[in-house]
Amino acid sequence: MKERIRVVIADVVGANPEEIPLDAHQEGVSGWNSIRHMNLVIALEKEFQVRFSDLQIAEMMSIALIEDTLLELGGK
User: Fold this and answer.
1) 25, β-bridge pairs
2) Is the Cβ–Cβ distance between 40 and 12 less than 8 Å?
3) Largest CA distance in the chain
4) Alpha carbon distance 42, 19 (integer Å)
5) I want to staple 52 with a disulfide (CB 3.0 to 4.6 A). Which of 13, 44, 56, 66 is the partner?
6) For position 75, what pLDDT does the model report?
7) Considering the entire predicted model, what is its pTM?
8) Is 62 helix (H, G, I), strand (E, B) or coil?
């Protein structure tokens, strides 16, 4: 799942997936700003067929936190 998340993040910020470490967090990824975060949320919802709450969106600031949230929601 981390690899799929990394690919989505890379696509949203315009990077190669290999440039995004598997332990990436928002502050460490160039281009992952508040506007792109919302684009990331939309892309993740589409990729994993889930819907995030406002609180979840605010908390998903790393690959690990995104993965935890997706697992809670039963993301596909």
Assistant:
1) 62
2) yes
3) 29
4) 21
5) 56
6) 77
7) 0.92
8) strand
CATH of the domain at 34: 1.10.1200.10
| Sequence letter at residue 47 | E
Rounded to whole angstroms, what are the CA distances from 76 to 44, 60, 72? 11, 18, 11
Are the beta carbons of 53 and 22 closer than 8 angstroms? Answer: no
Amino acid of residue 48? F
Q: Which domain holds residue 33?
A: 2-73
The count of structural domains within the chain is 1
Q: How far is CA 32 from CA 2, 7, 74, 75, 76, in A?
A: 17, 13, 25, 22, 24
Supply the DSSP symbol for 28. G
